[in-house]
Amino acid sequence: MLKLSKKADYGLMALQHIASVQFGDVTRARMVNTKEIAEEYNIPVELLAKVLQALSKNGLIESHNGPKGGYLLAKSPQEVTIAQVLESLEGPLGIVDCSHEKEGDLCMQREHCTIRTPLLKVQNSIYQLLNNMTLQDMMGGTPLITIQSVSPEQQGVER
Amino acid sequence: MLKLSKKADYGLMALQHIASVQFGDVTRARMVNTKEIAEEYNIPVELLAKVLQALSKNGLIESHNGPKGGYLLAKSPQEVTIAQVLESLEGPLGIVDCSHEKEGDLCMQREHCTIRTPLLKVQNSIYQLLNNMTLQDMMGGTPLITIQSVSPEQQGVER
DNA sequence: TCACTATCCGACTTAATTGGTCGGAGATCA
DNA sequence: TGATCTCCGACCAATTAAGTCGGATAGTGA
């Protein structure tokens, strides 16, 4: 319930990866391509490509093709909010349908609908939550759970 | 995106209706059956029945069958949280899959997953939000959009 | 310059979840 | 005791998401 889609998951991972390559201290800034991310995170390549497509279309990342091509962050990490990412991949987000319904297909329950107002409140709260968290927060702010590429013998250490 | 299911919608409406019939000031307390709710809110009867079944199974309402039967709220409105309702109808709610994953099917992205921790924060915030709002809040606290059942003589008005 | 290669891009197919439907079992009231 | 009204559990269809495939485009090296 309320689970976000694989596309959203993949999108967030990819963006986070691109951001840390581009702005992180460890490696020097470079372009990163679909295949690299897919292999790093075990994501089906073509699906990830689709996700990156959408993000590019919505102006969150820039695409450069040809050999040595790849993707680049279009904005700085603190300018990209989680809400923007999710909306780019899944359309406008809303708990209730009637929040963004067009003329003609309003729900049959409308007339007696008593749950709309309180749910809209919840929806707004969630939106603010997602809109206040940026890529920046996902990168540096919180430590990784398990770090594999550092010391392999710590693999078993979880949570 | 993040939209809650029809079942959840229907469930909330039904509970709200039952609550206001049982505890509201307008009419005297009585049992309410599936058909009545379905007609009132234009919900497919059988689907609503399924929803009420689930709620009954999870101890949120009591079922009484036979003629003059119907449903009754099992707890007082301020004891029933939105989170409880949603979980009864849709299983445990979580933004990320890995929050309640069992042994064996952990996601392939786990090893490098950098987005888990921040997303869990978001998830907790949302949960608290839903867990702090009760049926009571949905009834009296917030005004209705359209108030049809206010004047008693309109009570019998059916369509 | 020209051909090759590696990339992005859009449409299609398949699997899963959700929404909706049907017939049966149990209980109550006349 | 019988008939009726209710809840209950299993079944089927439709929508949506997940994953796949081939084509188009741009850059590089000979």
Query: Count of DSSP helices of chain A?
Result: 6
The H-and-E topology of chain A, N to C, reads as HHHEEHHH
Termini separation of chain A: 23 Å
Portion in helices of chain A: 40-55%
C-alpha Rg of chain A (nearest Å): 19 Å
Low-pLDDT residue intervals, each spanning 5 or more residues of chain A: 141-159
Structure report:
The structure is a homodimer of 159-residue chains. Chain A is mainly alpha-helical. In chain A, 45% of the residues lie in helices and 5% in strands. The first copy, chain A, is built from six helices and two strands. In chain A, strands 1-2 form a two-stranded antiparallel ribbon. In chain A, strand 1 and strand 2 (70-73) form a beta hairpin. The longest helix of chain A is centred in the first third of the chain and has 18 residues, at 6-23. Chain A is elongated and about 60 Å long. Chain A starts with 5 loop residues before the first helix and ends in an 18-residue tail after the last helix. In chain A, 33% of the residues are buried. Chains A and B meet through helix 1, helix 4, helix 5 and helix 6 of A and helix 1, helix 4, helix 5 and helix 6 of B. The structure holds a DNA duplex (30 and 30 nucleotides).
